[in-house]
Amino acid sequence: MSEPFFFEPATALTLAEIATLTGAEPAADAPRDRVIRDVATLDQAGASDLAFLENPRYADQLARTRAGACLIAPRFAAAVPAGLAVLVARDPYRAFVAVARALFPASLRPTSLYGAPGLSPGASVHPSARLESGAVVEPGAVVGPGAEIGSGTVIGPTTVIGAGVRIGRDCAIGAGSTLTHALLGDRVIVHPGCRIGQDGFGFVMGPGGHQKVPQLRRVIIQNDVEIGAGTTIDRGGTRDTVIGEGTKIDNLVQIGHNVLIGRHCVIVAQTGISGSAVLEDYVVLGARAGVNNHVVIGEGAQVAAVSGVNSDIPRGERWGGTPAKPAKAWMRELRAINRLAQGRGGSDKPHASDDDRH
User: Fold this and answer.
1) What is the largest CA-CA distance in the chain?
2) What is the pLDDT of residues 71-104, one digit of tens each?
3) 140-189: per-residue pLDDT in tens?
4) Where does the UDP-3-O-[3-hydroxymyristoyl] glucosamine N-acyltransferase non-repeat region domain start and stop, copy by copy (predicted)?
């Protein structure tokens, strides 16, 4: 039995076409009519594959690659072996991605798992729900009363769309997800197993028990947002939870109630954002970062992985650590701790106790 490949190229590109697409400059001896059909790493590329090099860590692979062509940064031009067709690019990886997108457009958005148009057998759609022509609802999915789904949107198997939920056009909602109390724009991608719009975690605590706080608002997800598998986004309690246009959220992220996230933010895996926090536009949170409630992170700020943010961060700054602080201060502290750890003659070996000497 042959091994399947799940993405087949939609087209092929010559080196001349790649140069036009990316702005890269072919070397003088590069055969501009050479055809590229796939992309690969330097060590695995074959005669019809395009590779790239921008990291010195992989420079030694350049001499051994069998790639049909390679995008390289200008600093590696002198190391190109004879016979390798190269295109010099200021940003080789960005150019490589542009070529991959052109060759494999189907990889950019999840498609129907069942492969049938319209309503699939076993889907349950309430009579009052409204589906535009071209919407796809796959087996086992449930669409509740008053829900609205736009043309070109795919609702994956066993997904549940709650009452009154509105989903725009050309969206993809992954298998096994649940969406309630939510409004989604166009071209939103929700990967499998997401939970969007459930209760926020709100209780008034007291010695006689904890009283649940009503969670009365919605989740608003704007155009071109992508949400990774297993992510949870709670609906707002006193104001909407909002995910701004173009924001990209990785797998296994928790976003609490009333959180406001701006446009084009990047939130990496296992991050937790507590209720009523605010991320302004273009914020980046590294993996496993934690953001306390009511914190404001300014436009363009970046937070290092495994950091704990307990106070506001001004726009454009880079912070890290637990508790998080400006990156320079954090680095100074780490160096000071390292010097202390290397004390007693610079050795980091444990010193023998009196008991050990006997």
Assistant:
1) 84
2) 999 999 999 999 999 999 999 999 999 999 999 9
3) 999 999 999 999 999 999 999 999 999 999 999 999 999 999 999 999 99
4) 33-101
Look at the chain and count its residues.
358
DSSP, residue by residue, 19-59: HHHH--EE-TT--TT-EE-EE--TTT--TTEEEEE--GGGG
For the residues of 156-205, what is the DSSP string, one character each? -TT-EE-TT-EE-TT-EE-TT-EE-SEEE-SS-EE-TT-EES-----EE-
pTM: 0.91
Q: How many C-alpha atoms does 49 have within 13 Å on its Cβ side?
A: 13
Going along the chain from its start, the domains and CATH numbers come out as 13-108 (3.40.1390.10), 177-342 (2.160.10.10)
Residues that are catalytic: 257
Could you tell me which residues come within 8 angstroms of residue 211 by beta carbon, excluding any fewer than 6 positions away?
203, 204
Q: Which amino acid is at 298?
A: G
Query: Which pair of tokens denotes residue 238?
Result: 């006193």
Element (H or E) spanning 16, and its range? Answer: helix 15-22
**Residue 138 and residue 117: Cα distance in Å, rounded?**
9
Beta strands 35-36; 13-14: pairing state? antiparallel
Q: Are 223 and 185 in contact (CB under 8 A)?
A: yes
